[in-house]
Every structure is written in structure tokens, then in C-alpha cells.
Amino acid sequence: MASETVFYFDVLGFRHMAGGTAQTAMTALSDLAELLRSPAIAQQTEHWSHRYTLSDSIFLTHPDPAQSLRQAGDLVFNLVSLNLTKDDPVLVRGALAHGEVRHLKGIFLSSEEPANLVGDAVVEAVKLEQIAGLKGPRIFLPERLVHTIAAADTALSDWQLRPTSAPGVWEVLWMLPSNPADFSQDELAVKDLCDLALQLLKTKGGHAEHGAQYREFALLAGRCVERVEQFTSRGALTTTIPLMTFLPVAAVKEIGNTTSGLPDEFMTQLLRLVESIGRS
CA-CA distances (angstroms) from residue 242 to 40, 77, 246? Predict the structure, then answer.
């Protein structure tokens, strides 16, 4: 087996959709397929060495861990950005892992082309994506892979990675372009994603069963803007849009006052985060 980085992701909440009507699940799969076939996304997936799909699950592999991180973050950034205007936009959740991977031909297919994959990296990526206690449309990776990426590209690691609350598990700040130098041209797109996070927090964040997914999306948006501010304060990048407008404090407070079901602890955490932005 060769060593590769595996990027595994699936549609956030698909199990709930599949447990409902067949039409709901089919719609979710259709929306994902439409996005993956779009020219912008199809062009990005071509940069991966191998591509596999099974139901709502996508597996992509690449030999270079740092390049895999760049491509994974940019792919999810563009995938979510392409369906911003939908009432129920497709959000995904995934994980990166590096290790042994073997590509196999399909059991029921006559073609010799690989149609499946196995290996330690595959298992680890799936386990990370399903880790208990970590919600939301996020990309996770193990700490040892973070060290590998940092050794190859410290700037990339400093810009796009952060530890989660789970020991040994980090996440990708995918709402940021993989290169800080590109932020100026992607500012409006990042702000659109922040607007989406607040919109979904307002409409879905108080749901007793699924609200945590959207609450974590809002926190991710805050952490991404916080990272931009850190780099701005170092002189590593400049912004043209005031960072306070990405997640306006007044808008967050209004959501907290009008949306039932949002835990007090969460609102305290989110407000502390957004109130700190632009005030350093």
C-alpha cells in the first residue's frame, strides 16, 4: 500500500434526511451531485489523484498532505458558496487523514479501473468525521497530520488550522482561502458565508435535535474572522471591508433575542467572540 492523504466528506444531516421521506434524501443527493458536476467544482476535484462516491459519501486522495489541505478547504469553500441562495443549502462535514491506502477495482464491475479504497487512512478519516461531540460543517484532522503539514508549510498551518475541544483533533478554517494573499479578492465571498452562518443560526440554530450543527457553523465563522484579524494585526494581510461587519454584534444579539432554543452558554461564547473582533 502507498501512503496518501484521504479527504472524506458527506452531506451534513443526511442520516436524518434518509430517515425521513425517500424524496428528501433523493433531493439532497441530487443537490450534491449537481454541485459536484458544476464546472467550478469538477475542475477542483480533478486535482485529486483518485475520486470515489458512495451515496452521499465522497472520498478523494492525494499523495501530498499540505496540498490535500489546500484543496479540501478550497473545495468546501466553493461548494458551499455555490448554493448560498438555496433555502436549505448543502453543507458538508469531513476529515483528512494520512496513511496507507489501497485502490481496488469494483467487485461487480468488469472494468479494471479502481472503484473502491481501503486502508488505515480511510478508516481514520471516517472515524474523525463521525467523532462524538464535534458538530457542524467542519473538516477535522489528527494532530500528527497537523505536525506533518506544519513541517512542510508552516505558513499554511498557522493560517488555516486550529485545535478543537477534542484532544488530538484539529480543524480546518475552510471559510478562508488556502492562501492568505487571496483573501482580498475573496473578502465578499467570505462575508457571504458569514451571512449564511447567521441566517441558518436564526432559522435552525434553536432546533432541539439539529440546532447544534448550525450553532457550530456560526462559531466557525467567528473563528475564521478572528484568524483574519490576527494576521491583519501582524501586517500579513490587509482588508478592505471592516471585520466588524462580517458578524455584526447587533445582528448576533438580535438573533439571540428572537430565536428560541439557543443555549445561554452558546450565546455567551458567540458574543464574546464577535465582540472581540475589530476591537484589538
Answer: 29, 21, 8
